[in-house]
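## retry 2 of 3
previous attempt timed out at serialization; input unchanged, resubmitting
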Amino acid sequence: MKLITWNIQWGCGIDGRVDLARIVETARAMADFDVICLQEVADNFAGLKGLDDADQFAQLAALLPGYTRIEGYGVDVAGEGGRRRRFGNAIFSRLGVLSARRHALPWPADTAKKTMPRVAVEATLQTSMGPLRVTTTHLEYYSNVQRQAQARRLRGIHDEACQRAPLPGEFTNKESNVTFDPTPQTVDAILAGDFNFPPENPAYGEIQAPLARGGPAYRDAWVMANGHEPHPPTFCLHAKAYAKQPYCCDFIFASESLSRRVRSIGANLETRDSDHQPMLLELDDR
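## retry succeeded, writing output
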């Protein structure tokens, strides 16, 4: 199974041109991916550099036929003519999507910081190794207070899911209301996205802290595959708008239950299609 994560900066490359087809082409050149997790996807945000009022969630779906789209919006505000303005993340999967959830992440007040609400998008996929929960997110950039709270919540979401996983799959009270029908739950999970912190930040450890009930905690898949080898720079490698030196802030975390399945992980350090570099994870799924 092959999974890519990428903060696409609404498809705006280092050259200032917005081109979603270029994004998809670059991703396909990296791998014949089963799942792609994208951050900074826009709908009706013409104020962003190089962008018109396009619905990029729909445009990406058209560019990825055969993939199911699961999207979530951190920002969802009123726009002209009654059309909403949305900004968030999306998962596209050609594996079956058993269920999907959207999690609003903490947004505590932080005086004098410009911030925006953040979301985690979750899809439980049917794979040859069984159900796999994939979550993608994009944490706060400017506020450390918010970023720390969001990291804790991501671990909490995983902890809750691990606590649900061993519960019976059927209810004794067979109601006619099918909204209560159980869906597959699993401890096997991947968390991918732009976390806006480097590996030395405390939030990096926060996500990987032990779970309350002893379930399989998240671990950095890069470390699983490469040990103490330094993380590749995934941000500001080809542009210095936010930092003088490139650093890694894009990660793929995998539950400890998947450690034996992590075959490889790497980053595309050549592309200039965004201000972030995409990462590719390969899992042994049999």
